[in-house]
Amino acid sequence: MKLLSQYRPRLYRPPFRLLDFMRQVNNENLINLAAGVPAASLLPVEDLSKCYRRVVKVSDGACYAYELPEGDPGLRTELAQRLENRNVTLPQKEGDVLLTIGCTQALRLALELTVKPGDLVACESPCYYNLLEQIESLGAKALPIPTDINDGVTPEALEPLLNRYGPKSLVVCSSLSNPTGATIPLENRSRLVELCRKYDVNLIEDDIYAELRDEGALPPLRSFDDGSQVLYVSSYCKSVAPGLRVGVFLPGPFWEEAAQKRCMEIMHGSTLAEGILREYLKSKLIDKHLEEMKKICYRRRSIVRNAVEAYFPKNTLVSNPQGGFLLWAVLPTWICLEEAAQASLSKGVSFARGEVFLTGKPKQACMRLNCAKASEDELAKGIEILGKILKQRS
Predict the structure, then answer these.
(1) 179: cis peptide before it, omega within 30°?
(2) What is the pTM of this model?
């Protein structure tokens, strides 16, 4: 009963918005530990430039013309193949893959297709702050699900809340979840899908970080479903090219409605951007890039973890995810992070306060730290500055 009373549906009022984070992204005067984005130096810029030139050369001008509302067929074929390599069944191949403007539009479409005003949407707690914004903007309530810092949403935590509240949809970032970095173990994935089928809950899977897992991407939740229960969203914005803004959506039975919504909103995506990503995937250079990026992220996570242990208040808990570039830190006592954030900004350091990822005020001060935007020297310096500020207030 304690669990059920603690985790109940809530209206969300964002203390900080996606818009605010994105306005800080390219501020050269900041050591940016806040926005969950990679630095341009981590991206395969030279290879993407070669792909751009190839697209322009072979397209005979078509890369500047209109495209199908569903997106570039060749790119959808490449994406379908990569998903099938991870045990996802796609009977229609590229016909099951809808392209979007980044993962954000895919997530928005998935929510619009499954949620109405007044509905409940279950989500991880903590979870990606823009998901909470999206739920609020649709007139729905968020139902927070307790989330293990290592294993994410577990069947044991999920079932009693599904049984009591009957949410319309459940949104889960299955691998390297933002913000905790949690990855749902393989043995729990099929059980979560079964629970959503049992309680007739649409499962929206955000798989955007999966290929940054150190030991390789796990089969997604979608691999345990035929597409009728799991709506899959992803992109290569965190690992290859955020600026291309190409997302992936498997809408399953909502295909025609999703394509119609996308066409009405934007007609189609960037023909040129989709062509560049198509050529990049066809070149097979992505796997080498991902291996290199994973090594860089591992080193940077280690730098930040070591710095947190050295400079943050004693007994601070910091996550140790299986990959990616996000860390979650929980301080041993309550500290007003709004004041700490202002003080750190005055010294040129930004971080993401934990309350933006939660539907209610946390019992302990917590924060997300991005290891991929600042340089390695800046990471160590930024954590030292932030640590001193936190110690002054603890």
Answers:
(1) yes
(2) 0.93
**Which comes out higher in pLDDT, residue 206 or 13?**
206
Three-class HEC string of the chain:
CHHHHHCCCECCCCCCCHHHHHHHCCCCCCEEECCCCCCHHHCCHHHHHHHHHHHHHHHCCHHHCCCCCCCCHHHHHHHHHHHHCCCCCCCCHHHHCEEEEHHHHHHHHHHHHHCCCCCEEEEEECCCHHHHHHHHHCCCEEEEEECECCCECCHHHHHHHHHHHCCCEEEEECCCCCCCCCCCCHHHHHHHHHHHHHCCCEEEEECCCHHHECCCCCCCHHHHCCCCCEEEEEECCCCCCHHHCEEEEECHHHHHHHHHHHHHHHCCCCHHHHHHHHHHHHCCCHHHHHHHHHHHHHHHHHHHHHHHHHHCCCCCEECCCCECCEEEEECCCCCCHHHHHHHHHHCCEEEEEHHHHCCCCCCCCEEEEECCCCCHHHHHHHHHHHHHHHHHHC
Q: What is the pLDDT of residue 393?
A: 85
Cα 32 to Cα 379: distance, rounded to the nearest angstrom: 9
The letter for the amino acid at 112 is E
71 phi-psi bin (left φ>0, alpha ψ -120 to 50, beta other): left
Instruction: Dig out the tokens for 185 from the structure.
Output: 């173990």
Integer Cα distance of 303 and 309 in angstroms:
10
Q: What per-residue confidence (pLDDT) applies to 1?
A: 41
For residues 331-359, give the mean pLDDT: 91
* Other beta carbons less than 10 A from residue 95's beta carbon: 14
Q: What are phi and psi of 232, to 5 degrees?
A: -105, 130
Angle at 257 between CA 254 and CA 258, to 5 degrees: 75
Percentage with pLDDT > 90 across the chain: 85
314, two tokens:
């004693």
- What's the pLDDT tens digit per position in 104-151? 999 999 999 999 999 999 999 999 989 999 999 999 999 999 999 999
CB 196, CB 202: distance < 8 Å:
yes
Provide the 10 A C-beta neighbour count for residue 393: 16
Pair 122, 169: CB distance under 8 Å? yes
161: tokens are: 């809340």
Beta strand 230-235 with 202-206 is: parallel
Radius of gyration for the alpha carbons in the chain, expressed in angstroms and rounded: 21
Determine the average pLDDT of the residues in 247-260. Answer: 97
304-317 tens-digit pLDDT:
999 999 999 999 99
